[in-house]
Amino acid sequence: LKEMGKLTIPEKMMAIIFAITLILWMLSSTLGIDATLIAFVSVTLLLLTGVLSPKDLLSETGAWNILIWLSILVFMAEKLTQFGFIGWISSSIAAEIKGVNWLVALIILALVLFYTHYLFASATAHNSAMYLPLLTVAIAAGAPKVMAAQFLAMFSAIMGSTTHYSSPAASVLASSGYVKQNEWWKLSFIFGIFYILVYGIIGLAWMKIIGMW
166 pLDDT band (50/70/90 cuts)? Predict the structure, then answer.
């Protein structure tokens, strides 16, 4: 820190704007402000104060790359839900597993929740569209409510191990180019199977031990 010297004015402005952004994000629901709007305001302040220049923004090719293809994927996933495709999948699965043992049905539904994430670029959008319908089917098949809810919730957490667009963090990491896209998909598929086996076998066994089913 001594070698770096005192904070410059742009560095001080950056710290202030960063703190303001965090505070507004935390209070966004209370103030009724959209989180995206706060981000745009923060970037605008950085430009107005001279912390960043338009050239700095244009040079962030990785960020622009994510913004373009991720927004397209989010839009496509939204339309799949809007046009009833996701609802059709859920109802079709419910019809197919009717009469199946509830434990088998729950495992099938968890796998469906995991692998349909290939159709989504947002875990929030995916869970909003499919978690409750699949949970309803599991309970209707006879699965204990709390156990089914937690088991599907675990799979909704590990489904990030699917694609390079499966979550915001994956998108940012993938854009670095450190891991090639085909390697990302291959390794994610392998890790996905590992997670499924861990949660599907050890997870269910532990739930049995603690008396959830």
Answer: confident
Residue type, 165: Y
AA letter at 146: V
pTM over 0.85: no
Residue 194, φ and ψ in degrees, nearest 5: -60, -45
Please count the helices (runs of H) and the strands (runs of E) in the chain.
12, 0
> In this structure, are 52 and 157 located in the same domain?
no
Taken as a whole, the chain contains a residue count of 213
pLDDT of residue 196: 95
Pick the last residue of a domain from 42, 59, 76.
Answer: 59
Q: Distance (Å, rounded) from C-alpha 144 to C-alpha 134?
A: 14
- Residues 186 and 133 placed together within one structural domain of the fold: yes
Q: Which token pair is 149? A: 């809810």
What residues make up the domain containing 84?
63-209
The chain-wide mean pLDDT, for the chain, equals: 87
Give the mean model confidence (pLDDT) for residues 120-148: 87
Q: How far is CA 43 from CA 40, 46, 52, 138, in A?
A: 5, 5, 8, 45
Q: Are 162 and 115 in contact (CB under 8 A)?
A: yes
